[in-house]
Amino acid sequence: MPFTKEEGGLINNFAPETKTYLAEPPTGAQKRNYILLGLAALVLVGGLVFVAYSASGMS
């Protein structure tokens, strides 16, 4: 593990460096899944807003 020693005798430990890698762009199937999950989230949030509005009695 890499470390440095300062003048007063203090030791500074550093975390080991992780390996880096390049991210790969999403495939067509992954893009389609992202769109479907986004639509499902919109429907869910819209339904929750509708239920909250209906239950609040402000209609």
Describe what you observe in this structure.
The chain has 59 residues and is mainly α. It has a domain at 26-59. The chain has one helix at residues 28-56, and strands spanning 3-5, 11-13. A two-stranded antiparallel ribbon has the order 1-2. Strand 1 and strand 2 (11-13) form a beta hairpin. It starts with a strand and ends with a helix. The chain crosses the membrane at residues 34-55. This is Ssl1498 family light-harvesting-like protein.
Rg, Å, rounded:
26 Å
Number of helices: 1
Query: How are the strands of the largest sheet arranged?
Result: 1-2
Inertia-based shape: elongated
Model regions low in confidence, pLDDT < 50 over at least 5 residues: none
What is the structural class?
mainly alpha
**Average pLDDT, all residues:** 87
Oligomer, anyone? Answer: single chain
Q: What is the beta-strand fraction?
A: 5-15%
Major sheet attributes: 2 strands, antiparallel
Approximate helicity band: 40-55%
Number of strands: 2
Considering the chains and any ligands shown, give keywords for the structure.
about 60 residues, mainly alpha, two-stranded antiparallel sheet, 1 helix, 2 strands
